[in-house]
Amino acid sequence: MEHITLLIGIVIITALVFDFTNGFHDTANAMATTISTGALGPRVAVAMSAVLNLVGAFLSVEVAKTISGGILDEDSGIRPEVIFAGLVGAILWNLVTWLAGLPSSSSHALFGGLIGATVASVGFEGVNGDAIVMKVLIPAVAAPLVAGIATLAATRLTYRLGRDRAPEDTAKGYRAGQIASAALVSLAHGTNDAQKTMGVITLALVTGGVIAPDSDPPMWVIVSAGLAIALGTYLGGWRIIRTMGKGITDIQPPQGFAAQTGAATVILASSHIGFALSTTQVCSGAVMGAGVGRKGGVVRWSTAGRMVIAWALTLPAAGLIAAGSALLADQGNWGVTAVAVLAVAGCAVIWALSRRKPVDAANVNEVGTTEPVGVITAALRSVAPPPVGSAAGSDTGIVTGPDTTAESTTDATDTTDTTDTTTEQPKAVATAGSAASAASSGTSS
């Protein structure tokens, strides 16, 4: 029993480490658009998000019940070693995608890790397939689509309502709206994502015989999970904030307001009914919808494509890492120790690699890469071409990000050539006139 108690303690600590990575991995969901538009400073934004994540952790336990007694069968012989291995898979995949600056799903990393470890240790009978399909896979596909479509409509409505107003007249209102909607997303994120760690810890307590099956998370579990995700949020996942705020599309304040409001609505609704969806996918879908919804706005589809690939890989990749960890952990105490040592070593390597090109609050809004105009972007522009001229561009919030650099340079070159041609003609006429006058003077003399 002493060994089980010690192991459960290790599982709880590992779960809180995952919760911490979930916090800084998903800070971008709430604050990327607010930071990119300048509605809030980076440090103030992440501090506000951290507080509201903590508050949100106390609002519901429905998602925690889905984790602890939904996707896995508590009576199938799952042991704390299995949960530990699942958490290791989720943490390592979270850090890999953070290093790449890709807003992948921490939720799906956790699900993939738990499923992979359970299948490797117990078999497929330890997994509730129906619950995975209904409460994980279907929301994973539907949620970003719903958020994207809702935000597209909201963005167009927002611009239509403000079309007769100067941008400086509406700037203060949109700034306040962005701050309020970002606060709502942070609250929703705490309500949904902090509960996932609560569910894992509760599952560990059930498998270790500490509490009865189908129990709600104890209060100390709720408090510790809320604090861990809040601390991770405060540190800020600046790499992913850069991708969400600047890499998908250049967000203007009206778009940021629409995207955050739409995402918060979807997340809160899913938390109420117990859907453990990915807040990352919801917020990413909302940002894409905001980019398409603005006339002249474009989405950088190559970046979006990399994100979708990461989404598709998250479940199997975290599952494979967790399965290998579970097979090693099943060997006994030395196996658990080996998994822990390898996990710490992997985290250290990823952290060292991240220091080569650090991203922090000072440079989070800098975008140092350019992206060519692709086929999808060109097609969108042919349907809704951006206004011509800098004045029109500033009034309508036209995208001038990396994906339009090449086109803008070409346009500028063409304009210069035309200007040179038109200015050279009067010069030639003037020169010819002076020569004629000189000749006439010479003849007279």
What does this protein look like?
The chain is globular, with a radius of gyration of 27 Å. It contains 16 helices and no strands. By secondary structure, the protein is mostly helical. The chain starts with a helix and ends with a helix.
Secondary structure layout plus pairing:
Blueprint: H1 2-36, H2 42-56, H3 62-69, H4 80-100, H5 106-121, H6 129-161, H7 167-207, H8 219-235, H9 238-247, H10 253-273, H11 279-293, H12 301-329, H13 333-354, H14 375-383, H15 390-396, H16 405-444
Helix pairs in contact: 1-2, 1-4, 1-7, 1-8, 1-9, 1-10, 1-11, 2-7, 2-8, 3-7, 4-5, 4-12, 4-13, 5-12, 6-10, 6-11, 7-8, 7-10, 10-11, 12-13
